[in-house]
UniProtKB/TrEMBL annotation:
Residues 235-419 form the Helicase ATP-binding domain. InterPro entries: Cas3-like_dom, CRISPR-assoc_Cas3_HD, CRISPR-assoc_Cas3_HD_sf, DEAD/DEAH_box_helicase_dom, HD_domain, Helicase_ATP-bd, Helicase_Cas3_CRISPR-ass_core, P-loop_NTPase. This is CRISPR-associated helicase Cas3. Keywords: Antiviral defense, ATP-binding, Helicase, Hydrolase, Metal-binding, Nuclease, Nucleotide-binding. Residues 19-182 form the HD Cas3-type domain. One of its GO terms (biological process) is defense response to virus. Pfam families: Cas3-like_C_2, DEAD, HD. In the N-terminal section; belongs to the CRISPR-associated nuclease Cas3-HD family.
Amino acid sequence: MDFYAHTAEDESGRPLPVGSGKWQPLATHLRNVAALARRFAEPLALAAEAELAGLLHDLGKYRIEFQQMLRGQRSSSADTQHAVFGAAWAFDCVPREGKLAGTAFAIAGHHAGLHDVGDLQQLVRSAHLHPVETSAKLVRLLEGELGPLPPAPDPPTWVSDALATDLYIRMLFSCLVDADRLDTAYWPAAPPPDKPLDTERLLDALQAERRRKNEANPNSPLAALRNRIFDACLARAAQPQGFFSLTVPTGGGKTLSSMAFALAHAKAHDLRRVIVVIPYLSIIEQNAAEYRRIFGDEVVLENHSGVSPPPDQREEEKSRLELVSENWDAPVIVTTSVQFLESLFAAAPARCRKLHRIPRSVVVFDEVQTLPVHLLAPCFNVFRELQRNYGVSFVFCSATQPAFRRAGSLPEDFFEPHELREIAPDPPTLFRQLRRVDYRLPAPGETLDWPTLAERLAAHRQALCVVNLTRHARELWEELRRQQPDEPPPIHLSAAMCPEHRLGLIEEIRRRLRENEPCRVISTQLIEAGVDVDFPVVWRALGPLDAIVQVAGRCNREGRLATGEVHVFRPADHKLPPGVYQAAADQAAVILARLGHDPNASQRLATDPQLFAEYFQSLYQVVNTDYSKRGETTIQEDRKQLRFRQVAAKAKVISDEGRPVIVSRDSHGKAYAAPLIEEIRARTPAPGQPRFTRDDLRSLQRFMVNVPSQNFARLEALHAVQPLLPNLELHVLDDGFYHPELGLVIENRPLDDFIA
């Protein structure tokens, strides 16, 4: 019998018969995946085991039941599953030789996702399939086509405890999944090679950008300070790999300076890529656009899409979305905290696929104060493992540097003082030199309702107001618009907008500010960190202290005024997002009350980095830095017991990840993804080429809005979303649900939606 790995389809998606010559032979697939997995694992020192995992991962496809299913002679069932057999062969080596634990987990989960260790034990001991006994027979068939299997390698020497074992298994799993998906997607062609990181060329481009900015502002005192920070980053990049902090006030040029350090550090240590991790989509859009302009589109990959196919529990390999899921194959990656952190703890193949690209990299955390507090302990443990055994350096950037250094009351997972090396030259002096605002703090018990606040905003030609909830932003926007019917409408910014829409609005804000036109902006927190805008006055609802100081960086940013004004207010409807955000806001209220109306209060907020060390230390004492629910284990405890699915369920940056929808047009007819959607749907691919590719997914992500699961279900019930393509887990939003000024609105849509 001829053994096959996959069937084939014609350009219209119709299945081709086995006699077409288009089905991929199983031996070819195993050989290709083994070679790719070995190549991916070379920088991880896991090459031999990754190669063996590649050879064994589809061992179960040598069973007659699986081949009959491919030929349509039987339906898919428990009898046609295939991953368990290669896993059983490897798992049998664990007690006998102390080897191949990672291979067993990786093969068993390469469709269904990583299993908890107890579930894997039950799987390989199935009384129905007899996987261990059957696998020995199947290996003889494999070796008849491919020759003898290579010997089982010893595990790496650094895999000496349970937590190190957890990450080693994940890395091997990532190599195997990426190799398998790439060969399946590209066969009969070979996948394209990774683009190398050309540090010399990119550093030259960065220096040219610095010269351009200096020439544009020849007499700017801010330019001199930014140059000093930039030069310090270059000078200190040759230090040994490890953990670094870059503590620079807002407006100090962290975006370019941190990249200068990362590229020079990568050059000094022959590292493979730079990964920039950013909390907010608005900063990703801005920074990725700037990096693309400087370095070129082919260098920078922007990855923030929440698209993730479900694990393939039945191993039928039908998900086209799975084949094109992101794998970070570019030299410079700009991604979200959600994408990066959950990749470290996920069990699903699509999320873990890119993990093997992190070793031998520089990881830059921008606005590091936004790292989720409830994940700090497991994150710091994994960061240390990545640094110690996988050649990763970390740079923590912030104007409000959190207290990650260990103190008497902080958890043991925090850093020793000597572990975290500061890059910036003399941060206290930088903060004093870059002070550009005065703070106006609320009196005890003072509150503002929306009409009163709208009146105060209307009194300023240009003003920014940041609130804590999307609902508050909309209510205040509507009140300000009601009070100023003859003025240009205020601009609303929130996560209900797709990135393309938001980025266009931010450019419009910059234009209005530059040309001194009326510009009043109501926003949620997404604008407060890293977005390059410059208002004379800013209002900020009482919230976390770092958020208050971050939004101050949008005020008098370029120092054109003697001082800007930052007003902190307590809304009459003082609702806050629950959990850590509320705890942080409570700690901020305590510190602000202690500062009171002391004339030095504003100076301390603007110039004293130690204030934030006190704030974060207080916060970390009252919140949990690992998953904590009564009667349940922590993430770290689950990692030690190799309970991968338990870890994945608990290690969520956002509790409800939601579902992305694609914005085609808004309710007034403006096109967003419409031309791309029409082209994809009308496409007739060349023979052997897929109808939907990773490049399509990358192009679409700037038109996506992530919708909470409950709201997505409501959209489905309203028939407001439709599949982009049949059998593809991507949906297009009905135009009527996307407002041109508010973004996605499901209920209480403005009247102009219906009369425009």
